[in-house]
Amino acid sequence: MTTATTAPGLEPSPPSKGLHVSLWIAQILLALLYAPAGVMKTTQPIADLAAKLVWPGALPPALVRFIGTCELLGAAGLILPALTRIRPGLTPLAALGLATVMVLAVPFHLSRGEMFALPIVVPLGVLAAFVAWGRWRKAPIRPRR
Question: How far is Cα 78 from Cα 76, in angstroms, rounded to an integer?
Answer without folding.
Answer: 5
